[in-house]
Amino acid sequence: MGFSPRSMICTAGFRDRAITVSLGILLAGSAVGLTLMCSWLNTGAPDGFVRPFASSIWLAALSTFFAGDTIVTVWNGRSSCLCFGPTLEPRLCAALVVVELFALLGYGLAGRWDAFGWAWCLVITLSIAFYHARAAAADRRSKYAAVPPGYLDLEGSSVNDEFNHRFHGSGRDQPRKCSFRKFGVWIRNALRVLAIIFMLGLLGGSIFEAQGYLRYAPQGRFVTVTHSTGLSQTVLAQCVTPPNYVPGSYPTFWSEVGGGGHSMSDLWGLRDELVNTYGVRYCSYDMPGTGWSESSAKLEFYNGEQVSLTEHVMEAMGEEGPFVVMGSMDNAFDRALNYALFHEDKVKAVVPVTLLVDEFQTWRDFYGKTDDEMIDHAIAVLDQRELFGNVITFFPINWGISSFFIPPSPTYVPHKWAEESAFLNVQNEKQWTTNVAAISQQLEEPDLGLTEPLYFGANAKDLNASIPILIFGLERNDSMLDAECKDQSLDLDSAECRLIKFTYNKTIAYNRAIRDANPNNKLLMCGDPSLGPCPYVSNAFLINQGSHIKWFAKTLMDSLNISSVADRTPNEDPPAAETATA
């Protein structure tokens, strides 16, 4: 069978149509998926879970771009108006396929199945683009081949006119020059460069997250909790028992941690101090959306049960108490109090760490604003935080460079786990997605909670008087507050500096009111000389972390009349449970 330019044209036309249809399906699917994921951003998918979306949005956007770019290339090759430049080189397309295959491997090793699926979509898109680029390059080379015997000169027959026009333009019908050709080519090449940079960034992010989850083993065991709505979640929980521990000799110390941006790894140093130095049993867990636990869910899917998560985890672990329930950071102390209110027979003490007043209510009271003005102010502040959180999520986190901006804390204890704690708390997409989603849910209904009394202060008075509340706070004098203003480059006479001092005084009044509600309650301040030396720290959240662990643990145990293991006599009768209820 002889060579036929017409058959070559027909083959190329069929190939181009097949490529266009395939890419059209990918383009439509990617565009629809991109739209849906953008609509779920910060709010969670219809099933209620707030899963990481940023990497999936990146990959869907890249798949949409490369599918559309290749369709334009196919159309451009069949048009006499070459306005958008040539196709990508086959070798570059092949390199992009290899890059995305490595990214796909990273998402798979990290268990990021949403991103894993979209990475496959991008691999298929780039593979089709590679096939077209390779075929188009072969077509271009063919125009330099000699015309087979039996055919007229390229200018001489209708068949060869068609062949010549299709692949490089005949002398009678050269491609028309579009007035915007240079601009179109520049825009298209700029987009390609950006797309390649983004692909390389996502490769780095996928590998960084994969090595994080592979490098560190979860500490504890996974349990499943189920809410009355039918919502089930898998959480990582851990109980650490000291050597030679006698069950029931001391209450179990149950630690509630965070809920927005903190996992139980924040308090590993405190865990080790309580277990090793004081010989007590310590339990905690990662809130959904943090650490190793499953993604969180929108608040309405909890049906108000999120504050009861403590009970669900205890039941799943088979823990029966009695407990000293501690709450640190975010709304953890609310969960601790809530459990105590409904299980007074199992609780020996409640330990809220850093009970702060609401920042927006404080702003309202300081400036003499109305509730409506407070809500408007809250919306403006939360909008900025949401934007900041999304920027962090889409760039440093997804490109694997977060460790350069958010390095492990040099004061973290124990230092050998500083990098692991940093990864679990601030260097993975799930954690940041949870943070931003919490802000977004506040924005959806900003009036809820802002105009109401704080949960702990409003309900602490209902706790059985035999259960002490041991409140830990940070004591500051005027010079410390002035130093804080200077650290923030604020004039000492500025309204912002006076707001800092007003907030501190209001916080102290709030803590004292809770203490005074029950004669068994105590307010234990880091900085109170009667409680021993406590290193100064500007962040009140850190008083049971870092260099403050020993002070916090000793002060807590002294309040419960629990001595250290080294100070106990061989036959000492543990008095902790009885003392706590005195």
How would you sum up this structure, described in words?
This protein has 582 residues and is of the alpha/beta class. The chain is 52% helix and 9% strand. The chain is built from 19 helices and 10 strands. The strands form 3 sheets. The chain has a 6-stranded mixed beta sheet with strand order 2-3-5-4-7-8, with helices on both faces. Strands 1-6 form a two-stranded antiparallel ribbon. The protein has a two-stranded parallel sheet with strand order 9-10. α9 (332-342) links the parallel β7 and β8. α3 packs antiparallel against α4 (113-142) and α10 (359-367) crosses α17. The protein is elongated, with a radius of gyration of 32 Å. The model is unreliable at 1-9, 150-175 and 573-582 (pLDDT under 50).
Highlighted features:
two-stranded antiparallel ribbon, alpha/beta, 9% strand, disordered C terminus, single chain, 582 residues, 6-stranded mixed beta sheet
Provide a brief overview of the structure.
Helices cover 52% and strands 9% of the residues.
Strand arrangement within the widest β-sheet reads 2-3-5-4-7-8
Percent of residues in helices: 40-55%
Give the amount of beta strand, in percent: 5-15%
- What is the typical, i.e. mean, pLDDT? 85
Annotation field: number of helices: 19
> Low-confidence segments, ≥5 residues, pLDDT <50?
1-9, 150-175, 573-582
